[in-house]
Amino acid sequence: MFSKFKSFVFLYLVVLQFGCTHEPQIDIIKTSVANVSVTAACPTCPSNPICPVIDDIVANSSTTYEVCAILPAGQGTYTWDQNNCWIWTATSGANQTVETCIVACNGIICDTTHLIIYPPIPSDTGSTGIPCNPDVIYFEKDVLPILTANCAYSGCHNAISKKEGIILDSYANVIKTGKIKVGNPSKTEIYEVLIDTDPKDVMPPPPASKLTAAQIKIIADWITQGAKNEMCDENPNGCNTINVSYSNYVKPALASCTACHKTGNVGGGINLDSYAGMKSAADSGRLYGSLAWTNGYKNMPQGGSKLPDCTIAKIKSWIDAGSPQN
Question: The pTM is what?
């Protein structure tokens, strides 16, 4: 059906490292690229239909559709519906951001829709039956949110960018780096770069904000305690909305939103990649209104499923407390 890509679409997709599997037989391409982001509602839950954005062609019976390579593989599967839209189902272990695209072609004109699919937000409660010990640092509950918000994002140490070959988006990948010296933070490279005073070596690199002393202590204590992946039920009695932290909960819970709401790409005039921007959105009512899908506000995540009720309740509790930078 396809033989060779020409013009900018080919270059665009190569730069994004999508490795598209289609090669349209066309001589002229009018390029149009749209960005769509989706957050999986839960593992094994099918998404709502994800339809290609079509603005340069008129879709009809002769329109052809192709999907680009899905990177990284193994995070889920997709099916086409009767309307030529894409339905994504995350695997039970999905924990990485997926990038792909849909290309719709009609004759010599194609539209490209760039897709970013975020993994399901971790459940607010576990299933171990073991209450959390306040003296124990838990990787999933305490450490991973810090790494997700400050290290494992696009351009740095997520599964797609994997800067310097390092991925910090899961316990397995953190341990795989070989840069953890169990029981000895001062000999652990991941810890050392957090406290480095040299701007060329410190992580996160400028202009990103340095981790707080409390966040650095959490990582140091986790290493000292053996860098284990112990599990516990954080909220065995239901959704705990008391003393919700901006740094440890709100920021990582909404990290995926910064793909559209960040400096240089302030979707809807909302910037969520800084505390000042987050507080402004919270104080205006737009943050909660959009997340709660309240009438009069634009539902967020755009094109995705509504966040879990407990996640929204925790963010509302933080807003009601004055949106502190805690």
Answer: 0.43
